[in-house]
Amino acid sequence: MAENDGILVSPAPGETRDALADGMMRLLRPAVEELDERVRGVRQSQLELREQIDGLCGELKKINEEQQVPVDLEPYVKKLMNARRRVMVVNNILQNAQERLGRLHQSVSRETARRKALLEPPNAGPVM
């Protein structure tokens, strides 16, 4: 409530709602941006891990083919391929989460811009 000439005046319901929404957006924006950045980092790590697993699988297959001693590396190759599959599943989940975060961030930005436009008085143009 604001005081106007000694009289307490409550703000208009729309002003309170707008102030609350603006405060929530200011509060959530840094968290969303930080989470988005961390998801990007994890996705990059997942891609690097998948590349390393692919390289290791290729090396193990090559060693298995060239090896004179009959050591069965196939179970290890299967384990690596299973790990690769799980990494890809996690990567897909992260990608979907990052896309949702991106859409949320866009929505917050649009809503912030819309509210700022509503709060700012329109320019009357040049005075002649």
UniProtKB/TrEMBL annotation:
Keywords: Coiled coil. Residues 32-100 form a coiled coil. Belongs to the SNAPIN family. The gene is LOC109484617. Residues 105-128 are annotated as: Disordered. GO terms for molecular function: SNARE binding. GO terms for cellular component: BLOC-1 complex; BORC complex; synaptic vesicle. This is Biogenesis of lysosome-related organelles complex 1 subunit 7. One of its GO terms (biological process) is regulation of synaptic vesicle exocytosis. InterPro entries: Snapin, Snapin/Pallidin/Snn1. It comes from Branchiostoma belcheri (Amphioxus).
